[in-house]
Amino acid sequence: MKKTPLITEISKEYTFEAAHHLPHVPQGHKCSRVHGHSYRIEITLQGPLHPQLGWIVDFAELNAAWEPLHAQLDHRLLNDVPGLENPTSELLAAWLYERLDIPGVRVSRLKVAETCMSSCTVFPAPA
């Protein structure tokens, strides 16, 4: 029987609470006022399975990589975080993607949900 090559991904969700305002929206836009969200982040990793352990990476390593980012964002005004002066979901997702580093695996997708019905997903462009 021929084995089909497989690509494996794992995902984990994280949350944080933060406030923001969007400084470049038209005057009178509701998002120009300071308001808060319960952000939900889903991080998806892709990589080869460890031949003995049978996993891509220990979830504890992902937790450790997330923790310093969480500390920078949780219960903050996102506009005050360097690089997030215009904290749209799209720019927040890119900011997180650029800073999340886990040796030996790649972040294949990172999703930011600012409400239960609104989200943004970033992923690397095809080569």
TrEMBL record:
Record's cofactor remark: Binds 1 zinc ion per subunit.
Membrane-spanning residues: none
InterPro entries: 6-PTP_synth/QueD, 6-PTP_synth/QueD_sf
SUPFAM superfamilies: Tetrahydrobiopterin biosynthesis enzymes-like
Domain of life: Bacteria
Family designation: Belongs to the PTPS family. QueD subfamily.
Protein name from the UniProt record: 6-carboxy-5,6,7,8-tetrahydropterin synthase
